[in-house]
Amino acid sequence: MPDKNLHLALSNTQISDLLNALEDHHKYFLDQADHATLGFGLDAAYWSTRAQEVNEVRQLILQSVKT
Which residue among 39, 40, 42, 67 is least enclosed by CB atoms within 10 Å? Predict the structure, then answer.
């Protein structure tokens, strides 16, 4: 899937909410990776990759709000 550019105008509260939601999502994926090591659901590598992708999005947002 090709990359898409999003042009958003968010308040500080909305940015904070978005970052918190992404952090929660990241933690959820890490938890799923832990559960996968016990033989549940998809394999741990899948969940770890998803967690990294979410963290990358979070980092992009943090970088853009610092400028």
Answer: 67
Q: Where are the domains of the chain?
A: 22-66
| Contacts by residues 28-31 (CB-CB < 8 Å, ≥ 24 positions apart) | 29/54
The span from the CA of 26 to the CA of 5, in Å, is 22
Nearest CA to 42 out of 33, 51, 31 is that of 33
- For the chain (67 residues), the mean pLDDT of every run of 10, in chain order, is 87 95 97 90 93 95 86
Both structure tokens of 61: 């947002």
| Amino acid sitting at position 58 | R
What is the reported pLDDT for 67? 67
Q: Please name the helix (run of DSSP H) or strand (run of DSSP E) that holds residue 13, with its range, or none.
A: helix 12-36
